[in-house]
Amino acid sequence: MATTTAPTFTLHKNVTSFLKTPRKMLIGGEWVDSVSGKTFETFNPATGEVLGRVAEGDRADIDQAVKAARKAFESGPWPEMSPSQRGRLIWKLADLLEHNLDELAELETLDNGKPLFFSRMVDVPSTADLFRYMAGWASKIEGNTIPLSARGGQYFAYSLREPIGVVGQIIPWNFPLMMAAWKLGPALAVGCTLVLKPAEQTPLSALRLGELAIEAGFPPGVINIVPGFGETAGAALAAHPDVDKIAFTGSTEVGKLILQAASGNLKKVSLELGGKSPNIVFQDAELKTAIPGSANAIFFNQGQCCTAGSRLFVHKTIFDEVVEGVGKAARKLRVGPGLDPNTNLGPLVSQEQLDRVCGYLESGIKDGAKAIVGGQKGAGSGYFVEPTVLVDVKPEMKVYREEIFGPVVTAVPFSDPEEVLPSANSTVYGLAAAVWTRDISKAHRLANGLRAGTVWVNCYDVFDAAAPFGGFKMSGIGRELGEYALELYTEVKTVYVNLG
Ligand code: NAI
Ligand code: MG
After folding, report:
1. Shortest-distance Cα residue to atom 12 of ligand 1
2. Do 307 and 275 contact (CB within 8 A), yes or no?
3. CATH: 3.40.50.970, 3.40.309.10, 3.30.70.270, 3.30.420.40. Which one for 278-464?
4. Tens digit of pLDDT for each residue in 262-309?
């Protein structure tokens, strides 16, 4: 592992001015201070220094935002708009995102820490793609006509799909802008109004997105953005009696709290939670793609991916070769500030995450695992951690069982497919999995047997706005992206008409 030096980087002038004054929250089309007047700091993970200040929303602000969303749902231009007009607004937002790509990418890297290359190539463009995909759906939300066998009369029956109402959306910090888009896109396409609570670690890009949404022409109150902490603003949103649906991405632990909070008014719930995804390399795999693919599976986004390929299973005959290959890839990664063009691996998002990941490294090594590369906190004042490959791992170890959410992979050998499948499935999670093999039957057999919402064959972390994404088991409830995402935000209504 090499480290890069602090960059001399001239920020986009809009970024500099955006960071200069405390950012307000967006309620009812206005940028306002919090009711309490409180603000909180957001940090630059590359240095640990304060990056900016943001209005701190709490229960009272959430309440105002929900009122604004309710008003915009029931009256004014939004419910009157044709589907095609809604679609156009969403498309316009995508155009504005692309138009402001440089600025948004810098903001994302400053707030989250990720290398600028990825903010520019992945986060911002895929956010625009998502909005364009969902813009198309706005005019294609259809019901059915239903042939009845009901006795005693003649009826014409049809179903309608209507927006579910006011939606609360709580998102994490690992892909701040993209997670906002995954939530906003389908909700807006079907005609909902919403209150978004970004993660306290990374509120900035969502607030900039709010500005662009106003510029695109979304009516006041359709999109409300209330930054704040989870235990206060987030909990108030999840429990609010006038919110019809809550969508959450984050830890499994908080997912359970959301489910409880939602029970008060039985709001609909969708959850996208943690993972401990198996990545399985067979002896017949093409190693020149499987090795770098397995390295990317864990090191992409500093390992802060719900889909991270954190349990690497390798056939015993090629175990040393693959593990050494992944270790070599880890050693080659240049760890440094995200704004440095030489950086491949940025800092983790926060001191809290750094402590958490370092705690796992210590526990793994104490339990007898061996780090063939990495294993420690990185150098410097930022939240850096070394990319790490652990071997000599036993199934009962915490590093093998729990989501680490950092650049740490455990590598375990296996001898046949019948052995590896139960091991791969032996987790409370079921978000994603991957198989590397040239044997097409084996690939499909494994794809069938793996209890996970996404299975990649000879690839990893491929996403598309059109393809459903979500978890089995404790990885979540519901599917985002694709047509499935629309179901999260619509109610089905059946209408019977007496033809007699
Ligand atoms: P978290 O689940 O606490 O935070 C995610 C979001 O939920 C944030 O917006 C936060 O403000 C909000 N939140 C927190 N407590 C809440 C509550 N009681 N009610 C309503 N909203 C609440 O995740 P955290 O603490 O940032 O990270 C802890 C671990 O969670 C990570 O180490 C990782 O394992 C996992 N995680 C998984 C993510 C995923 O993409 N599935 C994303 C982020 C974290
Ligand atoms: Mg938390």
Report:
1. 230
2. yes
3. 3.40.309.10
4. 999 999 999 999 999 999 999 999 999 999 999 999 999 999 999 999
Residue 409 · residue 298 · CB < 8 Å: yes
Test site for ligand 1: of 252, 254, 356, most ligand atoms within 8 A of the Cβ? 254
CATH level 3 topology of 2-273+477-494: Aldehyde Dehydrogenase; Chain A, domain 1 (3.40.605)
Question: Do the bridges between strand 476-477 and strand 268-272 make them parallel or antiparallel, or are there none, so unpaired?
Answer: antiparallel
Sign of the torsion formed by the C-alpha atoms of 240, 241, 244 and 245 = positive
**According to CATH, where is 3.40.605.10 located in the chain?**
2-273+477-494
Beta strand segments in 145-297, E? 145-146, 155-163, 166-170, 193-197, 223-225, 245-249, 268-272, 278-281
Residue found under tokens 């990893």:
460
Residue closest by Cα to atom 14 of ligand 1: 230
Using DSSP, state whether 80 is helix, strand or coil.
helix
Query: DSSP label at 348?
Result: -
Record the pTM: 0.98
